[in-house]
Amino acid sequence: MVSQIDIHKVFGGVVPEVAARKHVEFLYKLTQLAFEQSRIAPHQINAVAVSYGPGLIGSLLVGTSFAKGMSLSFNTPFIGVNHLIGHIYANFLDFPDLKPPFLTLLVSGGHTMLLLTKDYLEFEIIGQTRDDAAGEAFDKVARILGLGYPGGPIIEETAKNGKHIYDFPKPLLNEGYDFSFSGLKTSVLYFVNEHPEARIEDIAASFQEAITDTLVHKVTKYALENNIHDIVIAGGVASNSVLRTKLDKFKNKINIYYPRLIFCTDNAAMIARAAYEKYKRGLINSLDLDVSPNLGL
Ligand code: KG4
Ligand code: ZN
To answer: Which residues line the pocket of ligand 1, CB cutoff 6 A?
Structure first.
């Protein structure tokens, strides 16, 4: 596996140009490594898939151009995948019997959505964030607390030595299915400034409590009110163990699915799994497919 996280840590976040250049630097080596480790030869490849959005334009351009080159040289179909759908499909890697329709909570660094996966390639958005995404809130609060990047795993680790003793707001808790996390982040900032004596571990635990409570409340409320039996969690924040533990409490009423940790954060397997569904349906893209940094569902 190749990850840019150690590089982005130095800058306290993702610098778009650095990310794109690192894609250029590593994509070829990574591909060679994948061929070596999987022992799959180019002539055994049925199709080449790539995420064409949403995301940072530079990284998307490097990835799609490389994938188009591969598809040309292997003489195989080229398939563009929506990154968000990739996250949902990460669940099919571990749960092959899982079938739509199901309710999905998609929580990543750039997105927070409650949606119905009605069919394999058909989605309906029930609610989404009006400002910061859940992962973004973890990252920003980690920065406020001086904990570094990426915020989610560090907050989770730090919170293990803390207690939920501060009640931070749970925005829009009982107001429909949209989310809003920027006020929560700001209230942590004010609290830190006003209470220099407070332990960072306790603040991290209290913030994590507020945000996971909000996510769990909305997704389970919708499922119970609409008689939905399967909830699928996806995206980097789905790695969070407090979120998972809270959701697991509903397991006597609703089936809860989340991917293995390595399939929660961005990965190539989820893109390949989503592409397989398009491939089976003959949904192949032309080599002039453009990238789409703001692609929605
Ligand atoms: O899905 P992802 O890898 O990338 C995007 O598509 O955005 O998600 C990354 C986000 C980051 O904001 C990161 O802080 C968050 O997922 N994250 C977590 C955890 N692991 C990653 N948030 C909370 N708890 C975690 N354990
Ligand atoms: Zn992602």
So the answer is: 108-110, 135-136, 138-139, 150-153, 156, 235-237, 239-240, 265-266
Q: Enumerate the domain spans of the chain.
A: 5-85+266-280, 98-264
User: How do residues 172-209 score in pLDDT, each as one tens digit?
Assistant: 999 999 999 999 999 999 999 999 999 999 999 999 99
Token output for 39 = 């022992």
SS3 88: helix
230 labeled binding residue: no
Q: Which residues contact 201 (CB under 8 A, 6 or more apart)?
A: 158, 159, 160, 161, 162, 163
The closest of 168, 159, 171, 90 to 127, measured between CA atoms, is 171
Domain 98-264, architecture per CATH = 2-Layer Sandwich (3.30)
Ligand nearest to the CA of 271: 2
User: What are the start-end ranges of the E strands in 92-158?
Assistant: 102-107, 112-119, 122-128
pTM: 0.94
What topology does CATH give the domain 5-85+266-280?
Nucleotidyltransferase; domain 5 (3.30.420)
